[in-house]
Amino acid sequence: MSIDAITFLPPLAMPAAPDAAGAAKAPSGEFASWFSTQLADVNSQLVTADQGIGQLAAGDASNLHQIMINLEQAKLSMQLVMQVRNHLLDGYRELMQMQM
Predict the structure, then answer these.
(1) How far apart are CA 26 and CA 11, in angstroms?
(2) How deeply is 68 buried, as exposed, middle or buried, from its count of CB atoms within 10 A (0-12, 13-18, 19+)?
(3) What is the pLDDT of residues 62-83, one digit of tens each?
(4) How far from 77 is each of 12, 22, 24, 30, 91, CA to CA, in Å?
(5) Could you count the other beta carbons within 10 Å of the beta carbon of residue 70?
(6) Residue 47 burial by CB count (10 A; 0-12/13-18/19+): exposed, middle or buried?
(7) How confident is the model at residue 22 (pLDDT cuts 50, 70, 90)?
(8) N- to C-terminal Cα distance for the chain?
(9) Cβ-contact 76, 38 below 8 angstroms
(10) Which of 52, 81, 90, 92 is the most buried (most CB within 10 A)?
């Protein structure tokens, strides 16, 4: 995968510094909003695919090809979100193992 392939990702915002009480503020970066938008999109794709499977099971499916395409899109979107999550967790674990 080249660098050009991931240029659609928004830049990350730096975490906020702790306030006077010592508690860090939650980052309000663009990545968090992008990720929650992606999760909402994946959820809607999964709901659409589930409705198509329900129609297929009931014998009401008029377009089998579209149901299979929706199912495959939902599967690929879910795999993408899981890979992003896995890479984020791996990066977090690496940061936690770094010695200061």
Answers:
(1) 17
(2) middle
(3) 888 999 999 999 999 999 999 9
(4) 22, 39, 32, 20, 21
(5) 19
(6) exposed
(7) low
(8) 31
(9) no
(10) 52
